[in-house]
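User: I'm curious what two different proteins look like when written out as structure tokens. Can you demonstrate?

Assistant: Sure. I'll show them one after the other, since each token string lines up with its own sequence. Here's the first protein:
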Amino acid sequence: MSVLVQLALLSALLAYAPEPLFDPEARSLLFFLGVVGVWRYGWGAVHLLRALWFRFRVFPRLRRRAEALVAAGGLSALVPELVLVTTIYRIPPETVAASIRAALAEAARTGLPTTLVAALVEPADLRLVKTLVRSAPRGLALRLVLLRLPPTGKRRALAAALRAVARRCVHPDAAVVVMDGDALLTPGSLVRALPFLGSDRALAALTTDQDARTTGGALLRAWFRLRFARRHLLFCSLALSRKLLAVTGRMAIYRAKIATDPDLLARIENDGLEHWRLGRIRFLTGEDKSTWLWILERRLPMLYVPDVRVLTVEHPPASGFFAAATPLLVRWSGNMLRGGRKALALGPGRIGPFLWWCLVDQRVSIWTPLLGPLFVLALLPRAGPSLLWAYALWILATRLVLSLGLWAVSGRIDGGWPWLLWLDQVYGALVKGWVLFRLDRQRWTRQAIASPNVRFAFGREIGSSALHLLALATLGTAVAFATGLLSSPAALVPVFRF
């Protein structure tokens, strides 16, 4: 469905709106949504303006400087060595083959001496990697390090791989490319990304734009592309502050002295969170949040490279949209909330006021997307079906503007995004709210790892459910009072005269 079709639908909704569309109740809905929208969309406009400024004014200067340095002395003068680190477990062999071939082809383009470190579990994957290395491009100076490990999760696999890099005594300024076995480097990606490590000697890590190739249906493909477009805009905005929200695990490039730091490796392997109710929560997933936190704590700069794109091959855990999206949202939301909680504790002085407020906004945005549906439910008995028409107008108009903003920064757009944006925001808020009270619940289906069964797990779940229901009930009650569905709280309190 094209954007022009969505514009035609918006025009039709306005032209054929029922007569009572703007009756007092419908106007009340638009007023309530507008009050929240002034804040939410105002904050979105800040991100959009920052993203546009970085993408089209700041980053081109960085790109010209990096290319000038390469032209003056060659890439090897900036980056002495290249290390490719990949983790492979339960990924289809054709995907692994495509990933390794692309990585070796890009390493050959750089002309740098290269080490490939592959952490894997299955003997078949080990044989596959050996076969691929034997057919590596001619002229590539390549060393191979294979680590066969037990299936104890990506954190331990990545820590073991990076310790192997440290044992190789690579140059401190070497580039360590950490990537999953289902990430595909696009032509020229390393040649265009690596120079930034040489042009900014303080830079600790960088990551790039991403897009998805998924085996799911059209709706799931559009959803993945939407999420990557939103990520692109947000990371462009944050890059103005030389910060990011994660050093993405699918593909990120670290300076070797950072990637092999023993403290960082210990953090990757043993990171966790102390929670007032749930106790010690050991992180099973989200190793990219751990590396990000470690870099933030040391106030080291990070960079987003928006003109280099890496493709990720997505294999949805189920065939249906909600069946596939829900476990992914649970995992992503858990990583975000657990990592964000630790980052917020560092304070604005340490991580920067803008990033700190972004993390606060992540918490607030768990609840704000639910206000629209709740206002509609509260006003619907009095307003009737015309209220649904007004709400559909609001969704299409606002999300169409947001979709155009994503297009302005990323160059990508899909006619289905306005409705998918609303669905992703509302359903995503429900999932985040569920995870917020269950930070100890972790699961990664492909790696077959999950939170261990512990004593008092049933009691924890009762407490989590009670607090979650209390939060939802408080939000619903506030909306009911705001819309007049319930009497004003003051009217419920007896007035005593003395």
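Here's a second, unrelated protein for contrast:
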Amino acid sequence: MEEVAMKIVELTKYFEIGRGLKIFGGKSTYLKAVDHVTFNVRNREIMALVGESGCGKTTIGFLIVRLEDPTSGHILFEQGDIATLKKKELKSFRRNVQMIFQDPYSSLNPRLTVMQTVAEPLINHKMVVTADEARENVAMALEDVGLVPVDEYIERFPHELSGGERQRVAIARALAVRPKFIVADEPVSMLDVSIRAGVMRLMLDLRDKYGIPFLFITHDLASARFMADRIAVMYLGKIVELAGSDEVISNPRHPYTKALLRAVPVGDPNRERVPLPIKGEIPSAIDIPTGCRFHPRCPWAEDICKQAEPELKEYREDHLAACHFAVEGKERVE
């Protein structure tokens, strides 16, 4: 097994959204965005985090780069715990862990040129001294992401670039400081379908060239299968299934994973699609159901599902699932 690059242990993030009057015995209300999540990302690996909007996957990305402070838990990276870092320690840490944001239209400052955008982290981390040195490093980053010839792009502003070019600038900015880990939050969801594959292939090439592990956050299982070595499926703040990409696609064990796969569009118009009878809407993260949090929507739920929350256990080697029946080897989820 490959050495672990980052290990997430019992990571939790609760947002306080309301407090009743104390004189009347009011209690705080919390939104449980991430609820005791544990997984790891191996060296040179792309791990995909997949789930519906609101499942907590982006919050995990923000916690890893410390744009949000965890309520509890540990983020172990390079012999240290990111979760406990103080403000003065965060600057040096952020050179090693970078983030690519979802929207290239809002993640780039419209007043800065490509040169200024990519050079900014180099200057902040004191990795360059002279203007010539900064330009040389920026040119290398732009070449890495395919924005060539460099002279045609380096003095442009964001409004002079296409959506795909903007996202490549955002990737170049993250890559310029030679990070040791990258969190990519829905990096292609805002792009035209015609250019998504090119940006995803770029990230795969960069992983192969520099050996940088990625946490690839997406709602699209098709993109996850294309990009990732392993896939972790999230539902309502918890990971409910984790395995190799091909294993998750070909042999899903959790009914929620099966529902996500049934939702993927099929290119053959003559192929009949059998809908999975998932009921109702996703519950609120403020009022999470008892037992298995998927049981109100699960067509195979039994009494045990309403009473006991299943743990994420190994169904077979390197395939984990949080379902009473999948873990026990029963075929009710088929």
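A detail about the second structure: Residues 193-210 form the longest helix (18 residues).
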